From TrEMBL:
Residues 63-127 form the Methyltransferase small N-terminal domain. The keyword Transmembrane helix does not apply. The keyword S-adenosyl-L-methionine applies. This is Class I SAM-dependent methyltransferase. GO terms for molecular function: rRNA (guanine-N2-)-methyltransferase activity. SUPFAM superfamilies: S-adenosyl-L-methionine-dependent methyltransferases. Residues 156-318 form the Methyltransferase small domain. It holds the Pfam family MTS. InterPro entries: Mtase_sm_N (IPR013675), RsmC/RlmG (IPR046977), SAM-dependent_MTases_sf (IPR029063), Small_mtfrase_dom (IPR007848). Transmembrane segments: none annotated. It comes from Paracoccus gahaiensis. Keywords: Cytoplasm, Methyltransferase, rRNA processing, S-adenosyl-L-methionine, Transferase.
Length: 336
């Protein structure tokens, strides 16, 4: 059996005491660790639910003090620092902090940076990544590494690691520019992120209720801060299987199309299927997507009328409705 970096770091099994693991995923082998003494922090709802289904103790937040911490590095450097600072804040004095990550996620650069701050030992390289042991100094890690909200545009803040954390996504801007001045009464924003698109929709006439659906707990936390309108409803949920008791008459979305570093158009296709399932027969979908993504066929499978209402060489804005389903047509609107 191929050994993982976790196996190599803990050849004798559980290191003893209470262990905190920030970023563990649902499919990985955690057999070196004792589940009775393991707490996992995972902010992506699908990964969280997968870990919980295995009977593991998992939460999007952390509380308590631990005897060992393991941090899985995310792609974003600022988010990686924030995870390390979070782990450090919950470690007993002198307790070890293990850092695990791929080279493509900046493991080598972070190792070099951490060597200048604290003693690093037991560096293990395997499978294009590293795991290493850090002993924190009494003063801990730099205060600037702690996760802090920052204002991106007036009235909107984000947390490290969320999608488009330092700017409004240009696709979302284009979608907003081409939404009608009056929207349906009950709307869902699938993949709502930190709430900018939802806030713009709430500024349109007609809306009485808007559901923000977001899988990333940190992004939804930001959205709760950014969107204080009483018509907003917040759901930490996977858009691919999200459901409401009653159908809605509008869906807006700028769906993701990456799973990790790999492009995966199936994500957007699943969002489209959810939108169709949520909508009444007279409901409408407005979405933006990158020009190259092949969504037209899946849209035609779920909607009777599919129109590209705006776009450029990078993005396309699509309006779709169930009306006329069975004889779907697609046309391109004249460019403005």
């Amino acid at each position: 059996m191929t050994q993982s970096r976790l196996d190599l770091a803990f050849p004798d099994g559980h290191p003893g005491g209470e262990v905190l693991f920030i970023g563990a995923t649902a499919a990985e082998d955690l057999s070196p660790l004792d589940p009775q003494h393991l707490t996992i922090v995972q902010g992506h709802v699908a990964e969280h639910d997968g870990l919980a289904a295995r009977g593991l103790r998992v939460s999007p937040a952390v509380d308590g003090t631990f005897d060992t911490a393991i941090v899985r590095l995310p792609r974003a450097k600022e988010a990686a620092r924030a995870r390390l600072a979070l782990a450090a804040a919950h470690l007993a004095p002198g307790a070890p902090l293990w850092v695990d990550g791929q080279k493509t996620d900046g493991a080598d650069a972070l190792l070099k940076e951490l060597r200048a701050l604290a003693p690093v030992t037991e560096v293990i390289s395997k499978a294009h990544g590293k795991i290493f042991r850090l002993t924190l100094p009494p003063e801990g890690l730099p205060e600037a590494w702690q996760a802090r909200a920052r204002e991106v545009v007036p009235g909107f803040t984000t947390l490290p690691g969320v999608f488009s954390a330092d700017h409004v996504d240009p696709g979302s801007r284009m979608l907003v520019d081409h939404l009608p001045p009056k929207l349906p009464t009950r709307i869902v924003d699938l993949g709502a992120g930190w709430g900018w698109l939802s806030a713009q929709a709430l500024a349109r006439a007609g809306v009485t209720e808007l559901h923000l659906v977001e899988a990333d707990h940190a992004a939804l936390t930001s959205a709760r801060q950014n969107v204080t309108d009483p018509r907003a409803r917040f759901h930490w949920a996977d858009a691919r299987d999200f459901a409401l008791k009653e159908p809605v008459n509008g869906v807006i979305m700028n769906p993701p199309f990456h799973a990790g570093r790999e492009a995966d158009p199936r994500l957007g296709a699943a969002f489209i299927a959810t939108a169709a399932r949520l909508l009444t027969g007279a409901g409408k979908l407005w979405m933006v997507a990158n020009r190259h993504l092949p969504y037209e066929q899946v849209l035609a499978q779920h909607f009777g009328q599919v129109h590209e209402i705006a776009g450029d060489t990078r993005f396309k804005v699509i309006e779709a409705s169930a009306a006329g389903k069975g004889s779907a047509t697609t046309r391109k609107a004249a460019r403005r």
